[in-house]
Structure formats: C-alpha cells, structure tokens
Amino acid sequence: MRFRYEAVKQSGESLKGEIDAATEADAYRLLQSQDLMPVALAPVSDKRGALDRVIVARRANTRDRAIVIRELATLLGAGVPLAEAVASLAEAHAGDSLGAALGVVHGQLRNGVSLPAALREANMGVPDYVHQLVAAGELTGKLAPSLFAGADQMEYEESLRQEMRNALIYPSVLVFSGIAAVLLIFLVVVPKFAGLLNNRRAHVPAISVWVLKTGLFVKTHLMWFGLGGAGLAFFAFTVLSNPRMRASLLEAIARLPLLGGWLLDTEVGRWSAMLGTLLENRVPIVRAMELAQGSVVLQSLRLRLDVAGKDLRSGKKLADALALHRTVSPMGINLVRVGERTGELPTMLKTLARMYETASRTRMKRFLLLLEPIAILTIGVVIGFIMVAIMLAITSLSNITF
Asked: I need a surface site. Which of 86, 272, 320, 395 has the fewest CB within 10 A?
C-alpha cells in the first residue's frame, strides 16, 4: 500500500513524498528508520490517485503550547532523555501544527543545537520568557522546573485573558438582546399603528408620533442600518486587529474610573508574577525586568517600568526604582523592599502578584455588579418608553372628534 507523507529531517528541513508499506504503522516506523520525523501520513487511493484521508494540522493555541511545555517538563522530570522526550511528543502531536515544530526541534537537537536555540528555530510561538527560562534551566541543571514555571506562567496569562472574556459575555448578551428586542418592536409592532399618523382627527401625543416615525424610518431604511452595523463591526475588528489602535484603546480605557483600575491591577499582577518566576529560575534581574516588561500591554505602565529598569541598571535597588516612578502601590513597594533585604525577592513578587490578582477580581466583580443592572435598566427604559408611546397612541383613538 502506498502512503503519502510529510516529514522533517534531522536538519529541520521539511520533506514530502510517497512510500510503500503494509500498514500505516509500518510506514511510520520505516520513515523513522530513515531518520525522518513524520508529521503527516495518509494512504493514496489506487483508483483516484488522491488521498483517502488527510491529516489536517490543527492550529495550536496558547493553551496547547502550554500543555506541550508541561508535557516536556514531565517527561524530563521522569528521567527521559531530552531528544527522546521531544521525539515522543512530536509523535503524540502529529495531528496538529505543534507536531511539525517539535519535529524541527528534534532534528536540531540531533545536530547538537541547544534547546533554546532549537525552540527559536522551530518557531513554536511560545513567549520570549520561555526561551529565557529554558536557557537558565540548562545553565543551572534545572530544566524540568524551568519548563514547569514557563507552562505555569503561560497558563496564568491565558486564564487572565479567558476570565476577562467570560466576564463580558453576559453583559454583551444583554445588550444585543435589548437591541434585537427594540428592532423587533420597530419592525413588527410599530408599523401596525402607523396609520394613526394619517388620521387627522386623532390627537396622537408627540412622543407617540416620534416613536411611530422612528419605527417607520427604521423599517424603510433597514438595509442601510444593516450595512451601517456591518461597517461598525468591521471598523471595530480593524481597530482590535491593529496593535497601535488597540493599545490606544486600552490607554483610553485605563483612564476610566472603574475599568482603569481593573486593567492596571491586572497588568501589574501579570508583570509581578512573571518577574518572580524569572528570578526564581535564576534569570539575571536586569534581563528579567526586560522580559517581564514585554508582557505589559499598557504603554504608560510599560514606559514607567522601562525607566525603572534603567535606574536598576544604574545601580538603584528595585524597590527604590519602582517607588520613584510609582509603578506599584506603597504596599507592593514594601513587599519588594522586604524581599530584597531577606533574599526572598521572587517569593515577595509572587505574593505581590496574588495581591494584585485579588484586587483585579474584586474590581471586576464590582464592575459587573454595576454593569448588569445598568444594562437591564437601560433596556427596560427604552422598551418601556416605546410601549408607553404605543399605548398613548392607541388611547388617543378615544379622543377622536366626529
């Protein structure tokens, strides 16, 4: 039976071709015996000359990458040699895009390249601090704990992003449901009473006239409203896809009373957790500051941290540099200062991260406690106003003079 394959050489070069074997497992073993790492394998149909089954490389997300890093750390912690562990993971993830990347890593390792360099060459999409943690782990002989720390940090950042997305689901559903309800009233209910506008003997109140005319206008120009909504959605997508515009939007949100504090607490908490993780794994403090700063989204906070990092390089202590540029709260400054004096700076930074994480969640709950009733009240007021206007229009029929 003939199989079509895609494999990676030891040098990292990708190779495609066909091979004869009795079964798919035999084809896989045959390719491995030729020092090839298969990433896609499918039988070729004799009748059609095409693939009967195609293994589609699924695009990996951040959580998938964190799982792979954790799996590699687990295998290394169990005593499995590095090259064998990477090869095993490449075989296990042959069905997604990480399989090809791990195959490149395996080929680079077989050629004597270090793991950090192999990860960069494979372009697995992991953050820069993971490469730095891996390099520090190789130097200190603690590669598995360093990989565990990198996976923990990646999962922590992903959980923060997921938590923020989940927090906005219910308010978003409320808003879109309210808009849909108003459109339904304008398109179905209001036109049934539009004839009252042409009845000169009916004394229709002004608010009823306004609502009825608005409903007729929406129904008449529904296509333009649809195009306008699609244009707004496209504009919002463009803004969120552009890093500069997204950064400007976040800066504007950071100035708001409640959302700004929530966003700032989240950013400082993420920065503290990353800096503590890097220092815990023996990354030099100046380099750790640079890597941790890269995780900060808010430009204003990043600039303050950048200046604090320059002060750190000039000989100042971390607590003094952070206090001078007001990057964290006075309580956080005290924690950093105690950590520097006792030699437990990573632990104190982790404590600071938990403190800001708790504050961020408290602000998020407070924001949702305000947002949900405001959304419900606004929708109720709008729909109530429309229904009252319609009822006034109906009752105006009793005032018709003959």
From this structure: 395
pLDDT band for 352, please (50, 70, 90 cuts). very high
| Mean pLDDT comparison of 34-43, 191-200, 260-269, 317-326, highest-scoring range | 317-326
107 and 232 inside one domain? no
Angle (CA) 144-147-150 rounded to 5° is 155
Please indicate, yes or no, if residue 402 is contained in any of the structural domains.
Answer: yes
Which tens digit of pLDDT belongs to each residue from 259-288?
Answer: 788 888 888 888 888 888 888 888 888 888
Q: Give the CATH number for residue 34.
A: 3.10.20
How many domains in the chain?
3
Q: For residue range 284-337, list pLDDT tens digits in order.
A: 888 888 888 877 888 888 889 999 989 998 988 999 999 988 888 888 899 999
